[in-house]
């Protein structure tokens, strides 16, 4: 593996429930028109959150549950558990299936982590969301359609990178993930113009790579 190589995620399991039980509707605070849900697990949480957001732009669905698992995919509780579960809801199977298909496409072919070293043991996520959908806009306290820099890395690299990103572009902190997260990473959502968010992603990446090149550099 080379520096900046893509680290692709994998969808592990999906299921659609065409008409969810009333007790389950109550647990997930579903609206009466949200009779159908779709579930997905994958081995990368941040990639999946971007994918779920894309699902809300591709179909008439909402993200009703999304949660990372503790310690990450390497310590998964089961073969198909991975690092995250996401649940979308909509009025019927057609919308939910379309949402899941779009999410799978993003996970497998679009958003991804990158390697900061040749061993692939340091990974980072510096992803430009050109226009947020229903999920990430809510999570970041932004307006739907805002641009966002989604920045994630191991603890020290993330904090060093967040500072670099904020100094490099006219962006604001929408959400800050102080380390450790459930998967022992850190980072945040930065918002601003699309050009500013792209510059923030680039600055974050360069900062993470600098740490990886020379970790002990006071």
UniProtKB/TrEMBL annotation:
Residues of the BMC circularly permuted domain: 1-111, 112-215
InterPro entries: BMC_CP, BMC_dom, CcmK-like_sf, EutL, EutL_PduB
Alphabetic keyword roster: Bacterial microcompartment
UniProt key word rRNA processing: no
UniProt keyword annotation of ATP-binding present: no
Subcellular location: Bacterial microcompartment
Main subcellular location: other
Protein name: Ethanolamine utilization microcompartment protein EutL
A UniProt-annotated Pfam family: BMC
Upper classification of the organism: Bacteria, Pseudomonadati, Pseudomonadota, Gammaproteobacteria, Pseudomonadales
Entry-linked NCBIfam families: microcomp_EutL, PRK15405.1
């Amino acid at each position: 593996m080379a520096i900046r190589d893509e680290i692709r995620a994998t969808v592990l399991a999906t299921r659609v429930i065409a008409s969810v039980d009333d007790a389950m509707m109550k647990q997930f605070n579903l609206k009466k028109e949200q009779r159908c849900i779709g579930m997905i697990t994958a081995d990368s949480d941040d990639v999946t959150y971007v994918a779920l957001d894309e699902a809300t732009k591709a179909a008439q669905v909402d993200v009703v549950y999304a949660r990372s698992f503790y310690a990450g995919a390497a310590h998964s509780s089961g073969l198909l558990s991975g690092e995250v579960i996401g649940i979308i809801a909509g009025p019927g199977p057609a919308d939910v299936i379309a949402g899941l298909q779009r999410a799978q496409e993003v996970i497998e072919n679009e958003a991804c982590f990158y390697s900061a070293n040749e061993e692939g043991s340091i990974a980072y996520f510096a992803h430009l969301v050109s226009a947020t959908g229903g999920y990430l806009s809510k999570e970041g306290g932004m307006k739907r359609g805002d641009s966002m820099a989604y920045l994630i890395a191991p603890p020290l690299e993330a904090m060093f990178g967040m500072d670099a990103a904020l100094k490099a572009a006219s962006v604001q902190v929408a959400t800050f993930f102080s380390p450790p997260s459930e998967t022992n990473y850190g980072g945040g959502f930065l918002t601003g113009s699309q050009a500013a968010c792209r510059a923030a992603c680039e600055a974050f990446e360069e900062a993470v790579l600098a740490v990886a090149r020379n970790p002990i550099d006071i």
